[in-house]
Amino acid sequence: MKVPYLLSATGKGFTPGLVGGNAAIFGYSGRSIGDWMSGGTPQKGELTQTTLIGPGTNNPKQGIWPSDKNNVAPAVGFAWSPKWWGQDKTTIRGGYQIAYQLPGNSLSWIDVDAGNLPGFFYEPTDLGNGTFRDFANMTIPLEVKQKPFEVIPITQRAQATAIFDPNYVTPYVLTSNVTLDIRYIGTRGMKLAGSYNLNDADIRNNGLFQALEVTRAGGNAPVFDRMLNGLNLGTGIGVVGRDVTGSEALRRHASFRTDIANGNFVAVARTLSTTNIGTVQPPLTNAGLLRSSGLFPPNFIVTNPQFANITYRTNSDSSNYHSLQTQLTLRPTRGIQYQATYTWSRSLGVDSNGSGGLGVFRDLLNRNGDYSLLSSNRSHDFRSYGTFELPFGPGKLLGGNTSGLAARVIEGWKVGTIVNMTSGAPLNIVGMTTLYNLGTPDVVSTFPREGGVVWPANPADAFGNFFGQQYKRVQDPACGSVASNLTQWCTLNALADANGNVVLRNAAPGQLGTLGLRPIEGPGSWSFDANVQKSIRVHESRNLTFRLDASNVFNHPTPGNPNLSINAGTFGQITTKTGQRSLQALVRFDF
After folding, report:
1. CA Rg, the chain, in Å?
2. 291 and 404 housed in the same domain
3. Is 142 domain-assigned?
4. Are residues 430 and 532 in the same domain?
5. Per mean pLDDT, which range of 225-234, 281-290, 455-464 is the poorest?
């Protein structure tokens, strides 16, 4: 059997890619990022097709991502002792470095993208251990269910794929630091690896947003009359164009009415593009209601209708970090050893979870709008540890003249401590999703950004509250402006203070809330661990050590993060606590 392109024992020639390069991922819509979310245009590009790329194939110069050969990575540093306050009393150090990041941080993207491209793998269905089958009339060879490099039809829409931006470059990080007893350390990340779903629904360039606004308010949008004409979406709804308008059919159907009432228009568009509901003729596979009328181009809602999701690998992320770091170190001196560090820092950036998976940008067309504190930010961090040898025994402050059994009993005692204190993580206050991901609410009146955990007076009530029970849930005013038959399906809530004044409400459809991302800091944590040990010298070269370790000596609980959804009835409630005291005894014999 001859396998074209696969070079035996070399591993070359078996890398999958797209015919025409990575820009071919836009398929029906065209061949560049400029064709993304075009609002539905005549076909500008051939359907996406897979092939083999790299050395040993017909596409020897094509790779998974473009070459990037300007990755100069300098690293320089200096140290200077200026003789301030005396010889060798002060040292100033500095450094400058540019480092580069692997795609997916550990080349994991390459494994995922190259190993799962549609047309290169097929997983057969296991029929199980059924009855014996008659193979007498079986045709040999067996029919191949999925041929290599076969073009995926537009109506399939069940495959997912991932591809690198044709202009992808190697991410790099600019680092710098200056040290003088107290350290400043700063880093800047540019063109960091990120990803997002290139095939998410477009509602702003094709008129769907305006049509859904009209539908939500109780009006009738002509675009839905054309799209759904002749369809009966379900029992009791009626035929569009004869009994009801298209907008009214959507308001009545369970798959649409809640999302329309709540203003989640992207979810409505996703359903229109991918879900078959009611009597669709001819039957379509995952092609959605959009295709029923035949009046709309396949890319009216999504860029490449051959696929469900398209993970677009690109350089969408960035970061910067600034910190003031102090460290106090006491080397072993008279039985005492101690080190303490304190960091005051701030970490900001745009993070789409670039290590894998689809990005979570609120607005795909304004990704820099998600620039905020990163989830890894901890404003304050204090850590210390120390060991203290008690001054008991021969030659020590107390019992210095003892010997024999008395000396063995009082000597060799040590105490160790570990203290950790860290401020909380930046947290999102969540509203209804009004665009692509993670809705953030609008600020109506003064909302304090600082909270403090308040535990109930009754110990039997295990739940605490981050805001001290000062807010209550009320219906969002937006529910009063929706169509009358949508009111019962509007599940939006607002947050009010103790006087009933609305403080936070859900953002309007298509808008990002004014509160922004990660506006508050969650509960911090602290712990105190200690140990006591006693060493007994059994012989000149043999010692017996007894040690007792105690974690979380004061049995202090660490509260979990609160529920911060304004649409939930438990806003601010903390339902989890972790951290309990634990003891461990050890015996060690050294010889």
Report:
1. 32
2. no
3. no
4. yes
5. 281-290
| Encoded tokens for 560 | 């979990």
Structural domain tally of the chain? 2
Q: What angle do CA 379, 383, 385 make, to 5 degrees?
A: 175
What is the per-residue pLDDT across 317-376, written as a single tens digit (0 to 9) for each?
A: 889 999 999 988 887 777 888 889 999 999 999 887 643 344 578 888 888 888 999 989
281 and 381: one domain? no
Residues ≥6 apart with Cβ < 8 Å to 391: 335, 397, 398
pLDDT (mean) for 261-283: 82
Do 459 and 582 lie in one domain? The reply is yes
Last residue of a domain, one of 241, 269, 301: 301
Structure confidence by residue, pLDDT tens digits, 300-322 = 999 999 888 888 888 888 899 99
- Strands 372-373, 50-53: parallel, antiparallel or unpaired by DSSP? unpaired
Verify that 525 and 394 share a domain, yes or no.
yes
**Alpha carbon of residue 523 to chain centroid:** 21
What is residue 459's predicted lDDT score, i.e. its pLDDT? 63
Model confidence at 122, pLDDT cuts 50, 70, 90, reads: low
Indicate if the pLDDT at residue 423 is higher than 90.
yes
> Are 386 and 291 part of one and the same domain?
no
CA 483/CA 107 separation, integer angstroms:
51
By percentage, how much of the chain surpasses pLDDT 70? 83
CA geometry: angle 197, 201, 202, nearest 5 deg: 115
Picking from 301, 332, 350, the residue at the C-terminal end of a domain is 301
Which position has the token pair 């078959």?
Answer: 276
C-alpha 479/C-alpha 217 separation (Å) is 10
Give 489 or 290, the one with higher predicted confidence.
Answer: 489
Q: What is the C-alpha end-to-end distance of the chain, expressed in Å?
A: 67
**Domain presence at residue 361:** no
Which residues make Cβ contacts (< 8 Å) with residue 33, sequence separation at least 6? 26, 165
Q: Which domain holds residue 407?
A: 377-591
Dist. CA 299–CA 22, nearest whole Å: 19
Beta bridge partners of 442: 505
Buried b (16+ CB within 10 A) or exposed e, 245-258: bbbbbbbbbebbbb
Residue 4 confidence class, pLDDT cut points 50, 70, 90:
very low
- pLDDT for the residue 284: 56
Residue at 513 is within a domain: yes
Q: Return d(Cα 53, Cα 14) in angstroms, integer.
A: 7
Q: Same structural domain for residues 535 and 444?
A: yes
SS3 224: helix
Are 524 and 453 a contacting pair, CB within 8 Å? no
Dist. CA 173–CA 189, nearest whole Å: 4
Specify burial of residue 243 (Cβ count, 10 A radius: 0-12, 13-18, 19+).
exposed
Say if 89 falls within a structural domain: no
**What residues contact 558, with CB distance under 8 A and at least 6 apart?**
523, 525, 527, 577, 578, 579
My answer on whether 383 and 507 are in the same domain is yes
Interior/surface letters 412-441, b for 16+ CB within 10 angstroms, e for the rest: bbbebebeeebbbbbbbbbbbbbbbbbbbb
Distance, CA of 247 to chain centre: 35
User: Rounded to whole angstroms, how far apart are CA atoms 214 and 265?
Assistant: 12
